[in-house]
Amino acid sequence: MGSLNNVETTNKPINPLDPEEFRKQAHLVVDFIADYYSNIEQYPVCSQVKPGFLTETMLKLAPLEPEPIETIMQDVQNHIIPGLTHWESPGFFAFFPCTASIGNFLGEMLITGFNAIPFNWLASPAATELEMVVLEWVLNLLQLPKSFWFSSDGGGVLLGSTCEALVCTLVAAREKKLSKVAAEEGVLEKMVIYCSDQTHFSLKKACGVVGISPQNVRAIVTTKSMNYELSSLALLNAIETDLRSGLIPLYVCLTVGTTQTTAVDPLGTLCEIANRFDMWVHVDAAYAGSACICPEFRHFLDGVEEATSFSFNPHKWFLTTLDCCCLWVKDRTVYTKALSSDPEYLKNKPSESKQVVDYKDWQISLTRRFKAMKLWMVLRMHGASGLREFIRKQVKMAQHFEKLLSRDKRFELVVPRNFATLCFRLLLANQSSCDGDINMLNKQLLESLNATGRVYMTHAVVEGVYVIRVSIGAVLAQDKHVSMLWDLLQEHAEVLLAKYVTPQVISTLV
Ligand SMILES: Cc1ncc(COP(=O)(O)O)c(C=O)c1O
């Protein structure tokens, strides 16, 4: 085992950043990744390893001596790849996509290459200003109102996740309200947050982080008859009920493209209600925001001009990998007042001049990555036209799959499709079969499809109905992969339906 004596046996001078070694070894890794993409279809989409597969086989201690890159890459091939779920596989239809691209990849290399940490302007002026440039580009592509921009009272920032955007905007909303209401004890306990029962679970988590009790989060029930959109009447009723109880409506989170069914809350009417009560309105378009750069999808954002803040994740469907969330706010003074700090060791002339943006005041942590570089590379290398073409191609494939499903009476499309995600289920011909039986059937269908290793899909449960979700978005997916999915689905549905002649049989098999 390691000892200081062993360490001293290494007599080569170490230079972990030797430029020529870097050139050689990085080429090898780039070749490895290119081969990985070429061969990605040979791997099961969802990893099939058992728990402990790596922790029980890998060496328990870190290597004492340096190892050659070739040996390490051999281990990546033999031990790491089998334990990966391949998010870039064209058979990946689970959750929402996380889309890589050449522009993103090269941008990531530059980010790590420069290793700049732009917590304030001076810490890397180009990184801060590129972030402002790229956020204004995206703001224009989405046709967000100028009130969200620095030339007005607003501004934008690149965060790591939507969850972070929710925490930051909740803190700003809380501080703004605290500065207005009487400073009596227990004010925080009176603040109430509104959302729908389809809102991403991270809102509840974010509320906990900022000190708002889960009892004060009103997740308003949605229904199939309203396509799982938040009802303005229900929101109004909930707010008025809370006001009558002496509570303080603080914040409402609206979603464009909910996680389960991609429902779109009607922004205009909901913002109008929230604004009547001086609430903060955040619009979360984590997935669907990307599609809204196409004019034919922009209408889903109608009404956003009345919101207080807006966020979407390029790391989902915008040819950009994790982590990357764009957040814009209308009032940067209110927003940064809640998040800024001014320690002595960070003081510098540009910051004191108030002529620059210090992004440390726009987020939770001090340090941050130069994320703008990858978004800038994506937009320059693929262009707005390339991004639109990419989105449209995926939507076209989803439309095709939707057509195949709707022509086959054995299947039910549970909600109308808005983007490139579909929710469907297999039905039982037997009229007396209940939702419970059909839920079990679909759970088994999904499990058997995923077990093939050729595709990976996930599920949702809406109003007690188990649905299979297909989110088409993998960059490498083509028409033939959608056809393969359809053939596989039919084959497995036939086998299951043949087994499950009566609902009673289902319960004995599950
Ligand atoms: C609508 C919506 N909001 C928020 C999130 C969470 O995003 P993040 O992981 O960036 O916090 C998701 C994730 O899928 C989502 O679909």
From TrEMBL:
UniProt xrefs under Gene3D superfamilies: Aspartate Aminotransferase, domain 1, dopa decarboxylase, N-terminal domain, Type I PLP-dependent aspartate aminotransferase-like (Major domain)
Keyword Lyase: yes
The organism's place on the tree of life at top rank: Eukaryota
An annotated GO BP: carboxylic acid metabolic process
SUPFAM superfamilies: PLP-dependent transferases (SSF53383)
Pfam family, one: Pyridoxal_deC
GO molecular function, a single term: L-tryptophan decarboxylase activity
InterPro entries: Aromatic_deC, PyrdxlP-dep_de-COase, PyrdxlP-dep_Trfase, PyrdxlP-dep_Trfase_major, PyrdxlP-dep_Trfase_small, Pyridoxal-P_BS
Alphabetical UniProt keywords: Decarboxylase, Lyase, Pyridoxal phosphate
Required co-factors: pyridoxal 5'-phosphate
Residue(s) carrying N6-(pyridoxal phosphate)lysine: 316
Family of the protein in this entry: Belongs to the group II decarboxylase family.
Designated name of the protein: Tyrosine decarboxylase
